[in-house]
Amino acid sequence: MMRQWQLTLVCACSLLLSACGKAQLPSGLVYCSEGNPETFNPQLVTSGTTIDATSNQIYNRLVDYDSASASIVPSLATQWQVSDDGRAYRFNLRRDVHYHQSELFTPSRFFNADDVLFSFNRIIDLQHPYHEITRTGYPFFQSISFAELVTNIERVNDFEVVFHLSRPDAAFLSNLATDFAVILSAEYAQQLLAQNQADKLDFFAIGTGPFKLDEYVKNEYIRYKKHADFWGVIPKIEMLVFDITPRSSVRLAKLITGDCSVSALPKATELAVVKQQKNLIIDTQAGLNVAFWAFNTQKAPFDDVRVRQALAHAVDKENILRVVYHDTAVAATGVLPPSSWAYTPSVIPNEYNPKKARQLLDAAGINQLSIDIWAMPVARVYNPNALKTAELIQADLAAIGVKVNIVSYDWSVFTQKLALADYDSVLIGWNADNSDPDNFFTPLLSCAAFNSNNNRSRWCQPAFDELLTKAQATTDKPERKALYQAAEAIIAAQVPMVNLAHAQKVVLRKKQLTSTHSAPYGGISFAPIILAEKNLATPAAETQQADLYGDSDISHDSGTKHSDSESNPTKVSHNPADKPSDAPTQEQH
Predict the structure, then answer these.
(1) Pair (296, 250) in one structural domain
(2) What is the domain extent for residue 248?
(3) What pLDDT band is residue 544 in, cutting at 50, 70 and 90?
(4) DSSP string, 383-395
(5) What is the pTM of this model?
(6) Which of 504, 520, 539 represents a domain boundary (last residue)?
(7) Does 271 fall in a domain?
């Protein structure tokens, strides 16, 4: 679910932000986002919407992944050393790093080793006072068996820590560079715990990142202010606004009218309209992602491999590419996309063959079959229209005598029900968190991912896990590639899911935003934006003052709404019902 999709922009935007007659606010940028965050702590989810709103805006990690050099680079850790046996990682920490300040918290110290220990011990220590505060678990970390891998985190001094591992893991640094591995404030957590308000930690976010959370109005917007004491390059924009606009057509309309400057997840059918707009730019890049149709292998008849193979042979992927993706994706031959260094086209997928599909069903003793396909109600990079994809598969399966009932819910309900695993099959997908190929296997299909509810196929094969463990234990790339291709062969034979497509990452932006660069994985980052002088987004609608997690009575389709951040700093709600939904989801960025 991925390090960084980064915008390096030279832009002109003097944003008119007004509320209740207040004065014009400082310069800013409006990003049309597709949905509400589930929480403001990315440790707790794998949802792309939540990652975009949190990881790179509010927080930092020990290390980052640089897509240009394809290497791990320093962040809150300035350097690191790995022991000869690969079981100890020593990190030297950055000094003089400021945390954010809010109405709830005024930091009394800089970032130090205590924050590293708190951030990760919370995940691995079942007795930690914050381990079960949110009751959601840590899906990414559970899916990679992080608690079993990390045996101890040693505090050497204020600015040095050592992670001790139970075994070598070639993907360990890459996993620390994912959007989930953020560093929290131990001091803030201790203060909230003493005040019996520990549940606020993950919603009233405090981090060290380039922006600090200022206000969130559910279904309306998230507003951030620049972190003036940021340890890195301080953002040039004073204000960043996520305008929450679920409908793709409305996001496009706002981009055209100037109510936002960058827009998320356009439908492929909208690109023709965008090309007619002289002031809009379409940026595309091959993505590290996969869209797939997962079978619940714990339920009949999907526990029969012949049924899974039959359904795979019935799907016309090329038709899906034409209708859903409009030439912005390639057909998947496995879980790994062509942009992965471990990819090879040698794995033969289950080709489109309706006759063979019917024969396999007959061999399994299936004369009549009716199944449900759950389809996401939202667009994702890997699948811009899951409902349309479901309709195409419905028609394909009708040709072999299989009836399909398409199931979808409001997004928050969909994610909650998905966590219960009471489905026949589901159309979903995965955006990589980093470029290590393990990120496509262990979080999606390992037995650990089954236990963490991140494995949507509910499929656990010890022989498959053994290949992954061997690949993690070596740093030899040719050896790792061979092991991952053996894993691909098992997936192709057992068909826990049908891999459908690898999609391009598509970004819509105003023409004045130049030099856009997006990495093939990871959440969005606005920190590098540089300002000029022209208006790029001028939302005119006013908003009523609201609690941080309160609902607004203004429709989200009417434009971006903002309160005066100077007179109305970070709002606080004491009603848990108004917080973001914190159900963990496996769909990714």
Answers:
(1) no
(2) 4-264+511-578
(3) very low
(4) BS-HHHHHHHHHH
(5) 0.79
(6) 504
(7) no
How crowded is residue 490: how many other Cβ atoms within 10 Å of its Cβ? 16
Structurally, the chain folds into a number of domains equal to 2
Q: What are phi and psi of 280, to 5 degrees?
A: -115, 150
Distances (CA, A) of 553 to 30, 493, 523: 20, 52, 29
Of 464, 487, 504, the last residue of a domain is 504
Residue 276 in tokens: 């007619």
Same domain, residue pair 115 and 10? yes
CA angle 562/563/565 to nearest 5° reads 115
Verify cis geometry, omega within 30 degrees of 0, for the bond prior to 443. no
Give the pLDDT confidence of 399-454 residue by residue, as tens digits.
999 999 999 998 778 988 988 999 999 999 999 888 899 999 999 999 999 887 78
pLDDT, tens digit (0-9, with 9 covering 90-100), for 61-81: 999 988 777 789 999 999 999
Write the DSSP string, 419-469: HTT--SEEEEEEE-SSS-GGGGTHHHHSHHHHHTT--TT----HHHHHHHH
Q: Which amino acid, 15?
A: L
Closest C-alpha among 207, 208, 109, 120 to residue 161: 120
User: Could you tell me if 260 and 243 are in contact, meaning their C-beta atoms sit under 8 angstroms apart?
Assistant: yes
On the 0-12 / 13-18 / 19+ scale of CB atoms within 10 A, 486 is middle
